[in-house]
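Fill in residues.
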């Protein structure tokens, strides 16, 4: 076992093996904080993590608009993280290369649904499938 950032992790068996982290969260709450820089520190602790899949946790939901559409704020947040990561200025790991999020579009008005359909994810973020 090794220790990194005060956390214990498993030993690195194959440091050259490319890994896609299939599930992670980012959040900033009163009970705890784990943001982009924390993830990058963990991702660079020895394993060769080349990309990650962000899974929503209702941490960055919008505070405005219809309740059923507020979760879109977290997808927007994760998309921003993907854009930061794709700049190359934070290392080789493509954080939030894919995003799993949810919004109940069945209860939105046609105008709200149109507005949502016009919003575009980051060009390198996947919609509906992983690109790796």
């Amino acid at each position: 076992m090794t220790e990194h950032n005060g956390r214990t992790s498993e030993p690195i068996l194959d440091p050259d093996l490319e890994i896609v982290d299939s599930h992670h969260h980012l959040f900033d709450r009163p009970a705890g904080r784990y943001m982009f820089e924390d993830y990058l520190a963990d991702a660079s602790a020895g394993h060769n993590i080349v990309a990650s899949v962000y899974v929503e946790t209702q941490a960055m939901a919008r505070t405005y608009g219809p309740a059923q559409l507020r979760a879109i704020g977290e997808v927007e947040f994760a998309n921003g993280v993907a854009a930061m990561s794709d700049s190359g200025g934070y290392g080789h790991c493509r954080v939030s290369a894919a995003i799993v999020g949810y919004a109940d579009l069945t209860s939105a008005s046609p105008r709200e649904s149109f507005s949502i359909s016009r919003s575009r994810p980051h060009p390198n973020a996947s919609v509906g499938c992983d690109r790796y």
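The beta strands are 2-4, 7-9, 18-24, 27-29, 32-34, 48-55, 94-100.
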